[in-house]
Write a structure and sequence with these properties.
By secondary structure, this protein is of the alpha/beta class. The chain is built from eleven helices and ten strands. The strands form two sheets. A six-stranded parallel β-sheet has the order 4-3-1-2-9-10, with helices on both faces. The longest helix has 17 residues. The chain is globular.
Length: 264
């Protein structure tokens, strides 16, 4: 089925998920929306995140999307359940921090989680810890300002480095041997993380698992594209298209026009 897959996030972070989906499912047509006018979702009230998620999903459905990926941990925690209630027949793929594989991997019984405050304070995250990490020591670190640096393309700047060093310090001091990237922005600073982390710490990211889950759901419903798509991914933003184009090239080496989108 050649209908598109919709992906949305509050900014460029979900591009890390788009890259994994594109690599695993090259035949699929993709539509990506960065709701940059409301960036970041992590410090917004749940009611606003739900409202935006509904509007973005409505737009993607108007583009005939056959599935929607909520490529944001905060939006998943706040809105994925509501979206499934609104559209029970629509495959809606949400994110959750990779606590389960990190907990299974950890030999020390200690894992670290980098995420936004919105994700860490959510009931969904608490439930995740209760299910998979109840016997482990979990160092949950809110990363204020880090997603903003990545949005600006400042992946290796001195300010970004200082933030990452500060946020990693309690995780390394606790002796964690697994680190969960609980925000879709953070895979884009993996080179910096690997430079600053002890070799004994393994990094876990949800992007590849989300792509596999999407493939499984589409296969089960007979929705997989059966021939290569002639469409390049379409990119939209509720913010500044020129800024998004610059960061898109920096992060994914993609040069293309980004379309402005207003859902007000």
């Amino acid at each position: 089925m050649q209908a598109p897959i919709g992906i949305f996030d509050s900014g460029v972070g979900g591009l890390s998920v788009l890259a994994e989906v594109q690599a695993l499912l090259p035949n699929e047509r993709l539509i990506y929306i960065a709701d940059s006018h409301y960036l970041p979702y992590g410090d917004k009230p749940n009611a606003l995140v739900i409202e935006r998620s509904v509007k973005l999903t409505e737009y993607l459905l108007a583009q005939q999307a056959k599935a929607v990926i909520v490529a944001c941990n905060t939006a998943t925690a706040a809105a994925a359940g509501h979206l499934r209630e609104c559209w029970p027949e629509l495959p809606i793929i949400g994110l959750e921090p990779a606590v389960k594989p990190a907990a299974s991997y950890s030999k020390q019984g200690k894992i670290g989680v980098l995420a936004t405050q919105g994700t860490l304070s959510s009931q969904r995250f608490a439930s995740l810890l209760a299910r998979y990490a109840s016997t482990l020591e979990v160092v949950s670190q809110p990363c204020i300002g880090l997603a903003d640096q990545i949005e600006r393309g400042l992946l290796m700047s001195s300010e970004t480095r200082a933030l990452v060093e500060r946020y990693l310090q309690p995780i390394q001091q606790a002796g964690c041997d697994a680190l969960v990237l609980g925000c879709t922005h953070y895979p884009f600073i993996k080179p910096l993380l690997e430079e600053l982390l002890d070799d004994s710490i393994k990094v876990f990211d949800t992007g590849p698992a989300i792509a596999r889950q999407l493939r499984s759901v589409l296969f089960q419903r007979g929705l997989l594209a059966d021939q290569p798509s002639s469409h390049f991914p379409a990119f939209y933003t509720t913010g500044w298209p020129a800024q998004f184009e610059q960061v898109l090239y920096l992060l994914l080496n993609i040069r293309t026009a980004v379309q402005p989108l207003s859902l007000e």
